[in-house]
């Protein structure tokens, strides 16, 4: 039965995708890509072909399909969901649907409530997922306000941005300098993916204002007692982006036990980050290989391509900080990949070289960064290497 339906479904999906794409393209063509206002100098030459190509997320159709299945309670036909459901302390007893298509094993009232919340979060998130060029100007409202309120900072109208921020990546280059005190001297310090600071304080500091993670990290934490996920202390807020929609189960569960805020990145912010990173990746690919734009997908595993946690943390900081220092990004042949692990290689689903191009523009000429509204004011950025 399933087998017969699948090709038809895939075909439908292709049709829907094609229709969506042509719609998007015509909408964009009608609105002029990324109008930007510059006080002096010429407009940066954005190549329309490149912008259009970077605007398409090759994984979107699969994502929407996954969301649909999850909302229907259909966890059964994907290997990774099955392993998700049977791992750890919390066994989500949602099996593949019964013969009559109704989700089975919704056993306890507590579980049922969790399940409803999960569906609501997932649907809200999915409905909000779209390109919004002004989203950077909302980051103070969306993120900083929540953290300020939690920290007991009185809200007297517009609080503005943090005066100074440090984003601390996990590159082994951190071990080359003793920047611990310098890092801790910033008003707001963002750390990535729960890299530990213990026994590295001289190099990486010890202050953490926010722990920025991808949802795989929380998924691992969800197996622990009380979703324990706090190498920097349980009072430190966490912000995470969702890599797989099924991770909203972890979110729904863990949000109950976290004392500090557990925030999910705004899906409009995710879309913006995805476009920017794809743009830089394609640009570099064209320059380095001399190949056609249509070959980028196979070179970079288009549907699985994803920005790194690091670049999204930097993007976040751009929105909530007056001044930004970046530490622990980049690599040298002599440096370890991570300061705190022995991992050898970089993950292939990220294009770090392209992300470095972005950081370079961020420092030297932020006006050439596409997709961000011209109204947004970039803070000055310093990269410490
Ligand atoms: C824009 O980029 C595409 C793809 O690399 C290229 O074929 C085209 O010539 C470029 N257009 C302009 C105006 O530079
Ligand atoms: C997560 O928990 C906090 C604190 O209990 C609550 O205020 C917030 O509404 C929850 N988030 C969602 C999306 O339900």
TrEMBL record:
For this protein, the record's InterPro entries field holds: Glyco_trans_29, GT29-like_sf
Query: Among its keywords, does the record have Nucleotidyltransferase?
Result: no
Bilayer topology reads: Single-pass type II membrane protein
Compartments annotated for it: namely: Golgi apparatus membrane
Q: Which GO terms describe its molecular function?
A: sialyltransferase activity
Primary residence: Golgi
Q: Which residues form the signal peptide?
A: 1-22
Q: Which GO terms describe its cellular component?
A: Golgi membrane
On the tree of life, the source organism's domain of life is Eukaryota
Record Pfam families: Glyco_transf_29
UniProt keyword list: Glycoprotein, Glycosyltransferase, Golgi apparatus, Membrane, Signal, Signal-anchor, Transferase, Transmembrane, Transmembrane helix
Task: Say which family it is in.
Answer: Belongs to the glycosyltransferase 29 family.
Q: What is this protein called?
A: Sialyltransferase
Q: Source organism lineage?
A: Eukaryota, Viridiplantae, Streptophyta, Embryophyta, Tracheophyta
